[in-house]
Amino acid sequence: MRFWIVFVCGVGLLCGQQDSVVVTGTAEPIPLAEADRDVSVVRLPEKQSDLFNTWFDLLQLDPALDLQARAAGALQGDLSIRGATFGQTLVLLNGFRMDDVQTGHFNLDLPIPLEMVSGIEVLKGSGSALYGSDAIGGVVNVRTEPIEPGEFRLLAGVGSFGFNQQHAVASFGHSWWQEELAFARDFSSGFMPDRDYRNLALSSLSTLKSRLGATSLLFAYSDRPFGANDFYGALEPQWERTKNWFASAHQNLGDKTEINFAFRKHTDLYVYIRDDPAYYTNHHTDESWQGSLRRHENLPLHGILSYGAEGLGESIHSTNLGIHSRERGSGYVFYDLRSVRRYSLSAGIREEVYGARQVATSPSLSGAAWISAKIKLRGSASRAFRLPSYTDIYYASPSTLGNINLRPESASSYEAGADAYVKANLHVSLTAFERRDTNIIDYVELAGTMNYQAQNLPPLHYRGVEASTVYEPRTGQHIAVSFGALHGQYASPQNIVTEYTFNYPVYDGVVEWRGTVSKNVIARTRIGVVDRVARGPYAIWDVAAGYGSGRVRPFLQLTNITSTVYQDIPLVAMPKRGVIGGVELYVFGASR
């Protein structure tokens, strides 16, 4: 293992982290300070959304999240954690699975505007015991929470590359019910030919309280046509359009039982030559439903027993992949023993049935102990798996082939770490981890050709370290610095050329400051440095500022201000310096 272990700081916007309650990586909600897994919370600062252009900006605050973007504007990107491929990172929206059965390239194609996002919770390391397939590298749970009732905001902006945007969000209701509506439209003519895009997103979040229990309903829709120049390696000007329909319902039955259900439909229209659709066009439509029944029981000696059953159905109708469907069912049980500021122990197992009575067993064991009032030690071991996507199995083009003989991926993860709550405003964390992957799926170059076919790779080992510190010197000031190092290798010497596996960051660091410059001016800056395997380091510097009070709030956002030439994904160019300026208008509601 050849990398330097450097102990420095920061996990994004960890606001009031000791008091934050997390629901990701645990069977029942717990304070973040009591988590015995490596979980981070990235919050969208209240009344400071003008400092962020998309929810992708939040992902870039944690170096453990490797966002390999294909374009600006949260258009399309691949997300990996700790060297895992984009298909091995499970994306959730309020706990509902958003991973795409067609391909992991669309896992981040969420249909909600930034104004709906309250924050992101990240579980690093295997999470299949809680969430099933795809959670090999980790889990990203995007959360939506109702904003303050009686608020109506409008936002408009213009910027580089023919960019313009119009957003609106409104919230109204009473003590027992609330409705939130959001709209977003973002347009750009592109920083280079055939890189234009148009993003449209609409959403509705309804919450109410009754004698039965809390209820929430989310409805969302998005439409995203875009120029896909070089997205998939072709020389011709490509074009693509995705649409997304999503509906979810959550119902508490008392304080121990809950029922959840969601439906998702996603379409993808791909044109190989933009000006000649008849030459080669693929149209994919996939649908999925998911439902769960969960319950917990309070046991003696601070114990909680959580258990439940889940069902999932997925289908696709595609001009290239054909017509297919599959269903899965699972049951899980977790035992959690916890004494606040003393110790915790969590043990669980999930049995997931798929295919022709095939079963995947995913156990998990984690624990933590406070060795003093300020220092906590933690460790975990877990196992995860992933079923191949329909693209992995059935895709066929002149240069790329799927493989119907693919086996499911599996991985075993181990981690150990420490958290030091030095002061109320200073938190330091260090984590070392290892993951052993088996049957990982990637596209392998066929000998003597430029063609690729999906194959199961030989066993892979990943080892790494992550360190963070968050410091808030005074009210309104936030400083975070973070670092990660990662090393991956085959269990035995191999001479294989793959498309995705070895594009991870060997080193990755983020420095971020956010705060109040004067009485009413807010600002933030972020510097991210990435050194990918065999590609060399590059740095991206972003700055944003705005007026933080009143009904009229102008803002200015500068991205890549040093005009760094870089590619997160090989051969997919990213824009140089960009500027966006605009104003947010509080028509009514909070103005301070």
Task: State the main characteristics.
mainly beta, five-stranded mixed beta sheet, 22-stranded antiparallel barrel, 592 residues, 3 helices, globular, 34 strands
Description:
By secondary structure, the protein is mainly β. It is built from three helices and 34 strands. The protein is globular. Mean pLDDT is 91; it is low at 1-18.
The amount of helix comes to: under 10%
Number of strands: 34
State the helix count. Answer: 3
Q: How much strand content do the residues show?
A: over 45%
* Category by helix and strand content: mainly beta
Largest sheet: 22 strands, antiparallel, barrel
Q: Please mark out the parts with pLDDT under 50 across 5 or more consecutive residues, or reply none.
A: 1-18
Rough outline: globular
Please, what is the average pLDDT? 91
At a glance:
The chain has 3 helices and 34 strands. It has 592 residues and is mostly beta strands. A hairpin with a 6-residue loop joins β26 (441-445) and β27.
